[in-house]
Amino acid sequence: MSFRDIPIDDLELSVRSANALKGAGYTTLGSLQDLFEKPKTEVIKTLKHFGAKSYWEVYDSGPAQEGRPLPDRGMGSA
User: Fold this and answer.
1) Residues 67, 37 contacting (CB under 8 angstroms)
2) Which phi and psi angles does 58 have, rounded to 5°?
3) Rounded to an integer, what distance in angstroms lies between the CA atom of residue 54 and that of residue 17?
4) Which ranges in the chain belong to alpha helices (H)?
5) CA distances from 47 to 3, 24, 31, 67, 69 (A)
6) How many CA atoms lie within 13 A of 71 on its CB side?
7) 40/29 Cα distance (integer angstroms)
8) How far apart are CA 9 and CA 64, in angstroms?
9) Which residues make Cβ contacts (< 8 Å) with residue 6, sequence separation at least 6?
């Protein structure tokens, strides 16, 4: 199994974050990496029940940030 095929269930995310991602069709680490190519505000706006706290929880889980510069940590729009 490649890195991109690992299920997001392996990340130990909160129920809210995991459900928001799964509900939007993001089920693997590869799909998370694709999601985090987008600006933070776009990610938050496009996912139902997924705000800044969920964004940073997933981002800090590691796979989403693999090889990417750290974005601004401000909780407002960015």
Assistant:
1) no
2) -70, -45
3) 5
4) 15-23, 29-35, 40-46, 52-60
5) 23, 7, 14, 23, 22
6) 20
7) 17
8) 14
9) 28, 29, 63
**Cα gap 12→51, rounded to integer Å:** 18
pTM here is: 0.75
Spatial neighbors of 7 by CB under 8 A, at least 6 apart, are 27, 28, 29
Tell how far CA 69 is from the center of its chain: 15
Which residue do the tokens 């069709």 mark?
25
**Contact in structure between 40 and 48 (CB atoms under 8 Å):** no
Tokens of 4: 């991109």
pLDDT in tens, 26-67: 999 888 888 888 899 999 998 999 999 999 998 888 755 554
